[in-house]
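job 3f2a | input accepted
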Amino acid sequence: MKHRIDLPGIGNARELGNYIIGDRIVKSSVLLRTARLDNADPEAIKRLEQEYHVQTVIDFRMTEEQLQMPDPIIQGAENLRAPVMEMEDTLELNPGIKKTFGGAETDVIEKSRDMLAMYNDPKVDRMAMFNMMYDYGMLDDNTYVFFLLGERGKSAYRTFFDALFKLEPGRAILWHCADGKDRTGCAAMLLLFALGASRETVMEDYLLTNIYNAQKLDAIRQQVAHLNFEQKKLDTLLFMSGGVAETYMNRAVDTLIERYGSVIGYLKQELGIEESGLDALRATFLI
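job 3f2a | predicted structure (287 res):
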């Protein structure tokens, strides 16, 4: 748990500091990744302001999520909205959603909004919702590929790196989405590769979500044990319930390697980061 940061009310809160990269180490208390911030305790806000001196908060959530659950004000920090996807992208990401809802595209988008509201409603029958989404093929390991290759996603991750380049000495940057694992996890993956981390280190960081959310995931396993789900369906349920799966990140990294030769190739070709930029990132965030 050496990467954990204590931010009451904020889930999956940790930092990239202390990862070993070659003969160097990532600076601590600078690169913060979390889940949504709207339930943050006042103590967490105080720590972000006075201990971490956060300069920039990057919100990767959809506009709909940002409006329903806005980030709190963190004095001295700029809040950047950088949606990796929007509700209208759900058709491209999940063709099965049209089969589910039917009707015109505008109707599908509107019903997708209703689904998002349901997903964020603590009273909703999540199992019924999950079964519907799973049965119609709306959940698969192509999600991160869509995040990284979609134009909206590339724009969001450019915003992320632009903020990294602008980070002032003694300040921190925080990035988040809803659960702090998928859109946020892809950002962390790109940054770690940019800093020169191995694939093993990237995967270690990604899979920490399962440790941080272990209690919640164990409860889900117990709740569905009597249903005898096939392993794929169980893994998908755990993913939807706050867990992560190696297959998702491996699919994303393998796709970038296939298309661009490496993750660095993606950073250069799609995000416009030059070799000098990579050197600058390493000089800033490694000791």
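job 3f2a | The first helix runs from residue 42 to 50.
job 3f2a | closed
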